[in-house]
């Protein structure tokens, strides 16, 4: 799995490629913690090349989400792979934030 | 060189070295393609099946290790030999994790190169033999019993992934699904089944979570629990089945009950995500023994060996 994180003004852009699983979910959490500590108010997620996110990864994303909106932030998934899009829809995460297929 | 003729992809950003390695290997009966960088190597790898990747570690834009990691996602090639001027310990560890077969220090000696290629081909051949055996038996299974005290020390996924990749001739997509389901089921068996961690505890930062886990494992009753994993490939019937069973509290019962009652937890509650994911990734999801035994079934074409 690879994660690329960049910032522009008050927006953070995170691109995740590969699989988020029990081995590397902690790395994703590190990056999310970095966003939380930053001045970013918006997190744009690019999950187009993300092939799957395990429940551990989902859990970490939700913990981040709760903390991020607590400080006035918001998330949007700009684009996602079909698998991740359907997974987020099934888990009703699209009720929390916008999830785009592409 | 002994038969069959190896097909080798050589990758190095030094054009002189690239050319001379290519010429040398061709002189010794290999079929060789050359790539001056990782991007070109990926392009070639998508078009041909190579037996061996011979690759420099240090290259601009995309290092040899990054190249191997990306190529591995596509399931190719089987034998990887890395070349380097000096081998840093961190490169070595990462390379081993990526299943690199051999290392050659520059300047490359002809004898060492040819021996490394032959060894890689021999290894490929023995993997093929096992794959043929598994693929041509009516049913094959892999099972193990996992001690929770060792679960955190050894990533089951990293052990299982290369093993399945090398020994089961599965299409890469199916292998990815098998690994994702195995990871999900084993993690839940460990975190919820064996350790009995709550949703809140599972959401803790890694340092705090690891401490929680260490404390839990000091309880002899918890440390005595075991996780059983089994993967069955039934070629005749046309399915793959993964089964995980734990001696503890089993899968998230609340999520199971809610799911059966048609009530989904609010998305932020954290219940049922793993179950939902397994349902999505498998053709059939079976839960029994009060949630302690979970099975996923994945259909493959019946009557033929799985794989391309």
Please, could you describe this protein's structure?
The complex is a heterodimer of chains A (102) and B (308). Chain A has 102 residues and is of the alpha/beta class. Helix content of chain A is 37%, strand content 35%. In chain A, strands 1, 2, 3, 4, 5 and 6 form a 6-stranded mixed β-sheet that branches. In chain A, a hairpin with a 2-residue loop joins strand 1 (2-8) and strand 2. Chain B has 308 residues and is an alpha/beta fold. Chain B is elongated, with a radius of gyration of 23 Å. Chain B is built from 13 helices and 10 strands. The model of chain B is unreliable at 303-308 (pLDDT under 50). The interface between A and B is medium-sized, with 28 and 28 residues.
Notable characteristics:
heterodimer, A: 102 residues, alpha/beta, six-stranded mixed beta sheet, 3 helices, 37% helix, 35% strand, B: 308 residues, five-stranded parallel beta sheet, five-stranded antiparallel beta sheet, 13 helices, 10 strands, elongated, disordered C terminus
Write the layout of secondary structure elements.
The complex is a heterodimer of chains A (102) and B (308).
Chain A (H helix, E strand, L loop, with lengths): L1 E7 L2 E10 L4 H13 L4 E6 L2 E4 L1 H16 L3 E7 L1 H9 L7 E2 L3
Parallel strand pairs in A: 2-3, 2-4, 3-5, 5-6
Antiparallel strand pairs in A: 1-2
Chain B lengths: L6 E5 L3 H13 L3 E5 L2 H10 L4 E5 L7 H10 L5 E6 L4 H9 L4 E4 L4 H26 L3 E8 L1 H4 L4 H12 L4 H23 L4 H4 L3 H12 L2 H4 L3 E8 L4 E8 L6 H8 L12 H9 L2 E5 L4 E7 L9
Parallel strand pairs in B: 1-2, 1-3, 3-4, 4-5
Antiparallel strand pairs in B: 6-7, 7-8, 8-10, 9-10
Helix pairs in contact in B: 2-3, 7-8, 8-13
What's this entry about, in short?
The complex is a heterodimer of chains A (102) and B (308). Chain A has three helices and six strands; from the N terminus they run ββαββαβαβ.
Instruction: Output the radius of gyration of chain A.
Output: 12 Å
Distance between the termini of chain B: 28 Å
Order of helices and strands of chain B: EHEHEHEHEHEHHHHHHEEHHEE
Annotation, overall tally of beta strands of chain B: 10
Order of helices and strands of chain A: EEHEEHEHE
Proportion of helical residues of chain B: 40-55%
Largest interface: A-B, 28 and 28 residues
Any idea what the radius of gyration of chain B is? Answer: 23 Å
Oligomer: heterodimer
> What is the share of helical residues of chain A?
25-40%
- Strand residues, percent of chain B: 15-25%
Number of DSSP helical runs of chain B? 13
Major β-sheet profile of chain B: 5 strands, parallel
* Strand order in the sheet with the most strands of chain B: 2-1-3-4-5
In DSSP terms (H or I, runs of 4 or more residues), the helix count of chain A works out at 3
Q: State which percent range the strand residues of chain A make up.
A: 35-45%
Tell me the overall shape of chain B. elongated
Class by alpha and beta content of chain A: alpha/beta
């Amino acid at each position: 799995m690879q994660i690329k994180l960049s910032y522009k003004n008050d927006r953070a852009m995170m691109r995740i490629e590969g699989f988020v699983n029990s081995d590397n979910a902690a790395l994703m959490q590190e990056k999310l913690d970095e966003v939380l500590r930053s001045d970013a108010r918006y997190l744009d997620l690019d999950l187009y090349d993300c092939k799957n996110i395990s429940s551990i990864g989902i859990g970490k994303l939700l913990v981040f989400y709760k903390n991020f909106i607590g400080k006035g932030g918001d998330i949007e998934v700009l684009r996602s792979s079909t698998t991740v899009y359907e997974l987020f829809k099934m888990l009703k995460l699209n009720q929390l934030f916008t999830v785009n297929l592409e | 060189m002994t038969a069959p003729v190896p097909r080798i992809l050589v990758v190095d950003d030094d054009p002189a070295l690239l050319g001379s390695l290519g010429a040398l290997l061709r002189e010794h009966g290999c079929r060789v393609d050359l790539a001056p960088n990782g991007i070109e190597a990926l392009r070639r790898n998508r078009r041909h099946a190579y037996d061996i990747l011979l690759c420099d570690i240090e290259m601009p834009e995309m290092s040899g290790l990054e190249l191997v990691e990306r190529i591995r996602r596509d399931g190719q090639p089987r034998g990887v030999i890395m070349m380097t001027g000096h081998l840093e310990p961190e490169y070595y560890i990462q390379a081993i994790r990526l299943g690199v077969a051999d290392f050659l220090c520059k300047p490359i000696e002809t004898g060492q190169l040819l021996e490394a290629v032959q060894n890689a081909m021999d290894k490929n051949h023995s993997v093929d033999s096992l794959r043929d055996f598994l693929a041509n038996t009516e049913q094959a299974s892999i099972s193990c019993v996992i001690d929770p005290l060792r679960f955190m020390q050894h990533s089951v996924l990293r052990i299982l992934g290369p093993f399945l990749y090398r020994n089961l001739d599965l299409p890469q997509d199916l292998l990815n699904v098998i690994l994702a389901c195995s990871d999900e089921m084993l993690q839940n068996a460990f975190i919820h089944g064996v350790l009995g961690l709550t949703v809140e505890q599972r959401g803790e930062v890694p340092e705090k979570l690891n401490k929680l886990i260490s404390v839990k494992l000091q309880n002899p009753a918890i440390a005595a629990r075991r996780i059983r994993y089994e993967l069955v490939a039934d070629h005749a019937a046309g399915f793959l089945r993964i089964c995980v069973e734990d001696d503890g509290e089993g899968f998230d019962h609340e999520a199971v009950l809610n799911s059966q009652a048609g009530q989904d937890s609010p998305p932020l509650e954290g219940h049922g995500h793993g179950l939902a994911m397994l349902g999505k990734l498998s053709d059939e999801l079976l839960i029994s023994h009060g949630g302690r035994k979970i099975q996923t079934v994945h259909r493959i074409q019946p009557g033929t060996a799985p794989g391309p």
